[in-house]
Design a protein that fits this description.
The protein is an all-alpha fold and 403 residues long. It contains 17 helices and two strands. It is 73% helix and 1% strand. It has a two-stranded antiparallel sheet with strand order 1-2.
Length: 403
């Protein structure tokens, strides 16, 4: 039925535009639809600046990923970067499986969240909702990378449209914000602590750009297009987050915003509009986030198999679609098991820490490569200050989780 061959490469069919939307969809996910209220509970009136601070911190990691992906456009990029820098197969293997773990657990958590939104429209039992979503994601991911990325792009456009609607509906009120800031509490230790705590939460809303490097072998001219796509996706997400935060603050009383589990839906209700549209957009945002994780995790498995750090059969590609079918089936099976049988919340918190460990290793790998003065004239190159600062900030974020 499926003609498999380990010698068949992945199909290079992703343009800069498609990979940018893939990254943007992964970054946006469903997070902003619930996260802005949580950040507001910490940062208060300074919530937009908490998002900007988080963006500034995340930017250092984005730069490291952009340079490394341009130097080494490989699937299972993180594992390859670490192997190239440290020549430790065991460390490379651990990093690769950590990335896979973050993908499947994140997708499982997202899939669990899918049920509540889906049942607003069709009253199916939880297990049926989960099974339906996992089957759909698996089919799309196997269908083809261009088709998958195109689907992600369409959904991402709808996500962005939802955020733009929020911003547009609040554009009159946004002009009143300077007066609110004038009345706000002046900067103090407590205020700065709140902004920092809000930025810590907001930081995770920027995670997703790292997934882009794992489709590098399916991108046209990745040395040039991948870094640009990373920065475009990151920049667009930053602008949207900042403007949405402004829209929320200008329209909703801070206590209501901070207490809301669905702040964008609450916003629509306060504006006299139905929240069903935003509910639907939130639903497809969840699908988008989960699909992106399926694509990422399967490509990491494929890349590790090619590098000899995972079972070779995971590197087999379906001849017709040139997609890693076996790796994809393994990924969706694990997601289904986790989503049906486990409490995902605790695992999701662990994955956040794992991501920070991966980030630290990526920064360290780039520092070592730069110290060795390895030069690639085709690759993007940035100051060594970026991975150094990125390593320090990732470490501080990791430590703060235990304080």
């Amino acid at each position: 039925m499926f003609e498999m061959d380990e010698s068949i490469p992945l199909k290079r069919s992703l343009s800069q535009l498609l990979v940018m939307f893939y990254g943007l969809g992964t970054i946006l996910g469903a997070g902003i639809y619930v996260l802005v209220g949580k950040v507001a509970a910490k940062a208060g009136i300074y919530t937009p600046f908490a998002f900007l601070l988080a963006a500034g911190i995340a930017l250092f990691t984005a730069v490291s990923y952009a340079e490394l992906s341009s130097r080494f456009p490989k699937s299972a990029g993180e594992a390859f970067y670490v192997q190239h820098a440290f020549a430790k197969a065991w460390l490379s293997r651990i990093v690769g499986w950590m990335v896979v773990l973050t993908g499947v657990v994140s997708a499982a958590a997202i899939t669990r969240g899918f049920t509540g939104y889906f049942q607003l429209f069709i009253p199916l039992p939880d297990w049926a909702c989960i099974l339906l979503l996992v089957l759909v994601m698996g089919f799309i991911a196997i269908w083809g990378i261009k088709e998958s990325a195109f689907m992600v792009m369409l959904i991402t456009l709808i996500e962005v449209l939802g955020l733009v609607i929020i911003i547009y509906l609040a554009h009159d009120q946004i002009g009143s914000l300077p007066a609110l800031f004038d009345k706000a509490e002046s900067f103090s230790v407590d205020v700065l602590t709140g902004i920092g705590a809000g930025a810590f939460l907001a930081f995770y809303s920027y995670i997703g750009f790292e997934d882009m490097v794992n489709v590098a072998e399916e991108i046209k001219d990745p040395e040039r297009n991948l870094p640009r796509a990373i920065f475009l996706a990151f920049g667009i997400a930053t602008v949207l987050y900042f403007l949405v935060a402004l829209a929320m603050l200008s329209t909703m009383p801070l206590p209501i915003l901070a207490a809301s589990d669905a702040p964008l839906a609450t916003f629509m209700n306060m504006k006299g509009h139905s929240s069903l549209v935003i509910g639907f957009i939130s639903l497809i945002a969840i699908v988008n986030g989960a699909l992106a994780q399926v694509i990422m995790a399967s490509r990491v498995m494929y890349g590790m198999a090619k590098q000899g750090t995972a079972p070779h059969y995971l590197g087999q590609v379906y001849a017709k679609t040139q997609t890693p079918v076996i790796a994809t089936l393994v990924v969706v099976t694990i997601i289904l098991i986790l989503a049906l049988g486990f409490n995902i919340e605790g695992l999701a918190k662990i994955t956040s820490l794992i991501i920070l460990v991966v980030f630290m290793l990526i920064h360290a790998a780039l520092i070592k490569i730069k110290v060795r003065r390895e030069v690639d004239v085709k690759a993007a190159a940035y100051s060594i200050a970026f991975p150094i600062v990125g390593l320090i900030t990732s470490f501080l974020f990791f430590i703060s989780a235990f304080i």
